[in-house]
Design goal:
This protein is α/β, with parallel strands linked by helices. It has 8 helices and 14 strands.
Amino acid sequence: MAMTVLDANELKVFSGNAHPQLAQDVCDYLGIPLGESEAFKFANDNTFVRIRENIRERDVFIVQPTVAPTNDNLMELLIMIDACKRASAGRITAVISYYGYGRTDKKDQPRVPITARLVADLISTAGADRVLTLDLHAGQIQGFFNIPVDELTAEPILSNYFFEKGLEDLVLVAVDFGISKRARDMAERLGVPVAVIEKRRTGNDDRNETLNVIGDVRGKRALTFDDEILTGGTIVNAANALLDAGVTEVYCCATHPVFSPVAPKLLGESAFKEVVVTDSVPLSSSQKVGNLTVLSIAPLMGEAIKRIHEGRSVGELFQ
């Protein structure tokens, strides 16, 4: 349902090619038209962007998750920011519902980059005045920016969905220690206990080995929780470990369905009764397997954009 219509002459929302449906849904929520722009590649693979309406002194929001093809979408975002800057926009906010390169947030091996910091520098240098994002892979990424960052979370959306299902004897399961704090927050929203899957990565090729389940799960329904799904291997291994530990049913929820080519088949054939994600990244019809449920983040993003535009607190959304 759309909220009160804002002044479309003051607030402008534009979309790159990464996720135009999300941008349109956000505009529908705000009750304003999607800004007119174009972004495409020339024959020499160079990206071209043009803003097709007046944005002088306007409050501009650019919706562009840096999802695959990550480098193309990132470059398109940077060029869109530059185009808006040179068109004398009053303020430019990059709305990045999924922050690509977020996994490369620390120097955990010799002679490796911290690409999440590099991307932050690029966005700031391009001319963004602030960033609006959702469930970063690591909280410290906020500190990589020298401009304000508003990090939203999909936890209320996901927890409300499962709360309304009324599942009895539920336990929330963090798929690794890194997500355990968010898992505790999610569990508090649902009023259920927490368990953790202990795992060990075997290299840099997205494979890992599930070790054991820490917590009382026998005879319960388990809900696994993570920030994103890539290959699906982590959560499918977690589901199998939970079943071996005596759970009766297994559900899954995650914010970002960053599916690799093998993920839909793996999830569709898994033991999960339901896999619940958001539309923070676009999904094709072939990726929407039978046990997949996709929840909209457009109202959350739209409300945050409205609050930023009006100079109101974004944090109050989660109080």
